[in-house]
Amino acid sequence: MAETAVFENLTVNPESLPKPSGYAHGMRAGDTVYLGGQTALDKNMQIVPGGIVEQFKQAFGNVLTTLEEAGGKPEDLVTVTIYLTDVDDYMANGREIGKLWRDMAGSKYPAMAGIGVTRLWQKEALIEIQGVAVIQSR
Question: Can you give the pTM of this predicted structure?
């Protein structure tokens, strides 16, 4: 009979992010990391001001912080979903957001989806980002 590996699911909640209540910032199952939706909350539980570009920077930074805490790197992202309250605003700022992505994560892009929504959990939030990563052996 062949042995099968047993992986324990590990909760990933970086101390530099707001303390979660009723959710986890991420879960690591084996080499796969499920990254919970991140809005532009700063460590004081406030949505950062400055519009979609600043909110993208904070939200994506929160995702990457969780991924790093789980032992991953941006190039480990395999899929990212971006929820937007104003798709046109995001598209109008696409070049600047694309530059931020490259500055924060490099030029390797995962499978992605952008989805327009009516609103997010925090009324001030313009964007929420979630993803899945598979941590590669290095």
Answer: 0.92
CA distances from 136 to 30, 57, 125 (A): 11, 25, 32
Phi, psi angles (nearest 5°) of residue 4 = -115, 145
Backbone angle region of 71, left / alpha / beta, with phi > 0 → left and psi within -120 to 50 → alpha: left
Kindly report the number of other CB atoms within 10 A of residue 23's CB atom.
8
Which residues face 30 on adjacent strands?
none
At 43 the pLDDT is 87
